[in-house]
Amino acid sequence: MKKILKYVIVDIVQNKIVLIYTFLLLLIALSVFNLESNSAKGLLSLLNIILILVPLISIIFSTIYIYNSSEFIELLVSQPVKRKSIWLSLFGGLASSLSLAFFIGAGIPILLYHADATGITMILTGLFLTVVFVSIAMLAAGITRDKAKGIGLSILLWLYFSLIFDALVLFFLFQFQDYPLERAMVFFSFLNPIDLGRIQILLQMDISALMGYTGAIFREFFGNYIGVSLSFLGLLIWIVVPLMWSLKKFSKKDL
Amino acid sequence: MITAKNITKTFGRVKALNDISVSFTKGECIALLGPNGCGKTTLIKSILGMVVPDKGNIEFDGRPISEQWQYRSNIGYMPQIGRYPENMTIANVIDMMKDIRKDTTVHLDEELIVSFGLQELMDKKMHTLSGGTRQKVSACLAFLFSPDVLILDEPTAGLDPVSSEQLKKKIVLEKEKGKLILITSHVLSELDELITEVFYMQDGRLLFHKKLLELIQDTGEERLVKAIAKIMTA
């Protein structure tokens, strides 16, 4: 397992995309913090960029990488190696290198300019989102044989989580506006890892008052210790479930 | 050494393997023959665990292979089309395999690397290699760990006559050491001097599994090519 992981990481590092991603994040983070007079405002702008960019890059890069590793996978499957360790090494390699890229690109500037609880929550959320979307990419690439289909599915999933899901929730809210849906909203937010991350940070930033009564419910739920733990548990489930599902698929896959 | 019982595998509507039962014993050199698409490669891949059969079970040395992986350290596999990570060099690939299959007790058999003259090409990336050179790399990897079982899928396809002769010599040498060798090939004329048994498949079914001598006696032909031709037209 360790050996295969080593080869995956060396291969990803040689691939310059992750390096470019790191510099892109670094550039964005530094310019956002330098443009805004107030570092809290900078953090908010950075949040919006991170919530779009991190899932997008993580899911697309991982999906393409898994398809491009088909030769590597094929070579190893005929060797005395567990299938599970091949798949988990791919996941481990992608998750660790993309997390490291995020930590260097966005984490370090945040620590430099805004190293309080909000900043740290944001770094944690970014890292979690990276791993969640690598895991979702493993699933997308695991269940489709065709490369174009798999990448298409990844893009759709990203679109769903970053745009369509919110639109659906809004639609739902308008349709049922006569009913008290605030508590249901808490439940809905667990269905989307990006929302979970966003709420977590917005509550830390103390601007939940802008979100009205729903915000107050969120505050009540996520504001306390149990709420925070539950939301990170939710993110953890978003990592484990797609990964285990894809692992199950891969262990039966014909190569 | 390898026994398969009632293996069935379907891809969509096609039955690639239809209720195949077979047992391959140590010391034999078996030719898997049959027309294109008759399921030879699927059978090989099932033995290697690369394809998971729908029904039936396969045993290696008396132990079922499903979900197992250690047994593969006794197998050297040369695929029909060797696919390798494109941006690795030959040396990288060979080192990686050594690293992954590191078994201090096994002595590394680098004879083929020398006879193919691959040392001079070690720094070339896999994507720059010709089809034949790739085949050579595949062959070297199959023989490298002196495994007890060699599975060679179309070993000489794409090799030049000299290399193909060298590979055949190597196969004979390993056969004399009492290893189990499975070969698929469409070049029947080169199999005469190698094989001891013939395993003939058609449409995913086993047609016959005989000793070469038996086959020659039954058909009254001396050469494998003619014997098979007689069966196919009969």
Secondary structure category of chain A: mainly alpha
Q: What overall form of chain A do the CA principal axes indicate?
A: globular
Name the CATH architecture of chain B: 3-Layer(aba) Sandwich
What is the mean predicted local confidence, pLDDT of chain A? 89
Pattern of helices and strands of chain B: EEEHEEEHHHEHEEEHH
- What is the average per-residue confidence, as pLDDT of chain B, rounded to a whole number? 89
**Low-confidence segments of chain B:** none
Number of helices of chain A: 11
The count of DSSP E runs of length 2 or more, i.e. the number of strands of chain B, is: 10
**Separation, N- and C-terminal Cα atoms of chain B:** 33 Å
| Widest sheet: strand ordering of chain B | 6-7-8-3-9-10
Described by strand count, sense and barrel closure, the largest sheet of chain B is: 6 strands, mixed
Number of domains of chain B: 1
Which series of helices and strands of chain A comes N to C? Answer: HHHHHHHHHHH
Strand content of chain A: under 5%
| SS class of chain B | alpha/beta
Keywords (chain A): Membrane, Transmembrane, Transmembrane helix
Protein name (chain A): Cu-processing system permease protein
Pfam families (chain A): ABC2_membrane_2 (PF12679)
Organism (chain A): Pedobacter nutrimenti
Report on the architecture of this protein.
Chain A: Pfam families: ABC2_membrane_2. Chain A: One of its GO terms (molecular function) is ABC-type transporter activity. Chain A: One of its GO terms (cellular component) is plasma membrane. Chain A: It comes from Pedobacter nutrimenti. The complex is a heterodimer of chains A (255) and B (234). Chain A is mostly helical. Chain A has one domain (2-251). Chain A is built from 11 helices and no strands. Chain A has helices at residues 2-14, 16-35, 39-68, 70-77, 83-113, 117-143, 147-175, 182-189, 193-204, 212-222, 225-251. Chain A is globular, with a radius of gyration of 19 Å. Chain B has 7 helices and 10 strands. Chain B has helices spanning 40-48, 90-100, 111-115, 131-144, 161-176, 212-219, 224-233; strands at residues 2-11, 14-24, 29-33, 55-60, 63-64, 75-78, 149-153, 180-184, 197-202, 205-211. In chain B, the strands form 2 sheets. In chain B, strands 6-7-8-3-9-10 form a 6-stranded mixed sheet, with helices on both faces. Chain B has a 4-stranded antiparallel sheet with strand order 2-1-4-5, with helices on one face. In chain B, helix 6 (212-219) packs across helix 7 (224-233). Chains A and B meet through helix 1 and helix 4 of A and helix 2 of B.
